[in-house]
Amino acid sequence: MSDAPARAARRGRGGGGAARRAERTAVSVDTAKYIERNVPNYEVLSDEALDLIEANAETVLAEIGVNFVDNPEALERWKSVGAEVDGERVRIPRGLARKLCATAPSEYTQHARNPDRNVVVGGKNLVLAPVYGPPFVRDAEGGRRYATMADFEKFVKLGYMSKWLHHSGGTVCEPTDVPVNKRHLDMLLAHMVYSDKPFMGSVTEPSRAQDSIEMCEILFGKDFVRDNTVMTSLININSPLTFDSIMMGALEIFAKNNQASIISPFIVGGAMAPVSIAGTLTQVLAEVLAGVAYSQIIRPGSPVIMGTFVTSIDMNSGAPTFGTPEASHITYGAGQLARRLNLPYRSAGSFCGSKLPDAQAAYETANSLNIGLLSGVNFMLHSCGWLEGGLVASFEKFVMDADMLGTLHHFAKGVDMSENGQAMGAIAEVGPGGHYLGCEHTQANFKEAFWRSDLFDYKPFETWDEEGARDTQTLATARVAKLLETYQQPTLDPEIEAKLRAYVAAKKESMPDAFT
Predict the structure, then answer these.
(1) CB 382 within 8 A of CB 349
(2) pLDDT of residue 22
(3) 58, 103, 194, 439: which could form a disulfide with 300 (CB 3.0–4.6 Å)?
C-alpha cells in the first residue's frame, strides 16, 4: 500500500523548520470530537406510514418526473440507465433510483489538514458546522450590514476557536466586497489557512468546484485527494422537482473526484412543497432519490448525504418560520427515511426568524438544535450564527449558539450506568441527612460531571448587578472579542501556504471582475 496519503497528511500538518518552530509555540485549541450518540433516535412515523411515503415518492418519479434544466449530458446519462426522457423531464422507473442509490456509502471520513480534526459522517455520529450563505452580518457595534471578506475571516477564526464546532463550514457569510467570480478563492483560502478543521467547497459554478479540487490538491497532495474525501459541499435542489445545471455541474465535479455532496431539497412548506407533512416528505424523498442516484451514475460509491432544509411560511406575511412543530415532524420523518436508505442525513441548525439574538431566537434555535440531535442528523449545517431566516450571520449569536452546542454533546452521551455512574459508594458514604459536596465521589467527578457554559452568567444577583447587569448579548460581544484576541493561526507549511496564495492570485488575474 502506498504511503502517499500519510505523507500528504504530514505535509498538511506542517513541514519544514519554520512550520515546526511555529507548531512548538502555537496555542493549542481544544476541540471536542464529533458527537457519537448514545441515545435513541426519536421516530414519529410507523413502518406503514414510511412504506406509503416511499411508494408515493416512486410514483412521483415514475409518473410526474423531475426536470434536469440546461444539462443535455445529464439527460443522456439518465437515458443510458433506463430512464424515460421527454425534453428536460426525466421519469425514473420504479425502483431504479433506489437501486442506483445503493452504491452510496453509509458513512465516510472527511479528512482535515490536521488529522486530529477528521470527522466521520454517518452512523450514530453528528458533525456540527456553522451558518452558511447569509449576505448580511450583524454585531452589537456595527448593526446589520453587508458582509465583507474581513467579516468572513473573523467567522472562520471564531469557528476554529469554538470547542464544540467540528467543521469550518463553507460560505459562513457572503463577502460582497469581493467580485462574485473570485470570492470563492478567498473563502477557500481563509478556511485552509486560518483553520485546520474540515471545510466545504464552492458550488456556485462548476468551474469553481474544480478550483476547490485544485486548491485541495495543493493543500493535501494530489494522491491524497484522489484517494480520500477532503470536502463536503452543499448541492441544493431547486424545489419542487428541478435540478439546475449549475448545482448539478458542481455535483458532477465533486462526485467524479470522490468528494462528498449534500443533496438537499430546499423546502419552504406552502411555497416549494405541500402544506402537509406527508406530502412534503414524499417530495423530499423523490428529490433526494433522483439527486443521489445521479451522483452514483457519475461515480458509483461517491460519498453523498441525504439532506433537507425545512421551513414553512407565515401565511399572513409570507415570511419563513422556524422551530415549529411541523418542521419537527418533517425533520424526524426525513431522518427515518434516510436510515431506510442507509444514507447519512443532513438537517436542522440554529434556525430562527428573529432579527436579533433575543428570546425569540433562543426559543426557536433551541427547538431546532434539539430536533436535529434526536432526529439522527449526521451533518448539521447552520449549527451556529443563523439569524433573520438565514439572511444574517450574527457574531454574537455565533458564540451563543456555539456555546449551546456543548449541551448536545453532553445529552448525546446518554446515562452512565457504570459502577461510577451508579454512585452507590457515594450514597453509602453520605447516608441520611448529609450532603455530597465533600464526598470522595464528588471530588473525583466534579470537574467533568456537569456541562459548564463558557458564556452564561450564573453569579448571584448582587454580583451580576455590580458587574454591570450584563445581558447575554453583552456577554457574547465580550466573548467574540476575547476569542479573536487570543486567536493564533494553526500551523501550516509555509511552502504550501505560498502555493495556495499564488494559485489564488493567478486565478484572479486570469479573469475580469464580475459582480453579478
Answers:
(1) yes
(2) 44
(3) 103
Grid cell locating 325: 412543530
State yes or no: pLDDT of 332 exceeds 80.
yes
The residue-averaged pLDDT of 138-165 equals: 97
- Which residue's C-alpha cell is 427515518? 336
Host H or E run for residue 425: helix 424-430
Q: Cα–Cα distance between 356 and 247 in angstroms, integer? A: 32
Instruction: Give the C-alpha separation, 479 to 384, whole Å.
Output: 15
Q: Report the 3 state secondary structure along 215-268.
A: HHHHHHCHHHHHHCECEEEEEEECCCCEECHHHHHHHHHHHHCCCEEEEEEEEE
Angstrom distance (rounded) from CA 246 to CA 71: 9
Query: DSSP E strands: which ranges in 61-167?
Result: 66-68, 84-86, 89-91, 107-110, 119-122, 125-128, 136-139, 143-146
CA-based diameter of the chain, in Å? 80
Burial 169-207 (b: 16+ CB within 10 A, else e): bbbbbbbbebbebbbbbbbbbbbbbbbbbbbbbbbbbbb
| Residue 319 pLDDT | 82
Contact indicator for 130, 398 with CB cutoff of 8 Å = yes
- The grid cell for 120 is 466521520
> Do 378 and 125 contact (CB within 8 A), yes or no?
yes
Cα-based distances in Å from 257 to 251, 269, 305, 362: 10, 34, 16, 40
Over residues 46-82, the pLDDT tens digits come to 999 999 999 999 999 999 999 999 999 999 999 999 9
> Could you count the other beta carbons within 10 Å of the beta carbon of residue 430?
17
Q: For residue 235, give the nearest of 221, 211, 253, 251 by alpha carbon.
A: 251
Q: Which residues pair with 91 in a beta bridge?
A: 84
Secondary structure of 357-391 in the HEC alphabet? CCHHHHHHHHHHHHHHHHCCCCEECCCCCEEHHHC
Report the run of H or E that residue 194 belongs to, with start and end: helix 183-194
Question: What are the tens digits of pLDDT across the range 4-37?
Answer: 334 344 444 444 444 444 444 444 588 999 999 9
Residues 6+ away with beta carbon under 8 Å from 146: 135, 136, 137, 176, 177
SS3 content of the chain, % helix, strand, coil (to 5): 50, 15, 40
Q: Under DSSP, is residue 59 helix (H, G, I), strand (E, B) or coil?
A: helix
DSSP β-ladder status, 260-269 and 232-237 = parallel
Residues 6+ apart with CB under 8 A from 340: 50, 54
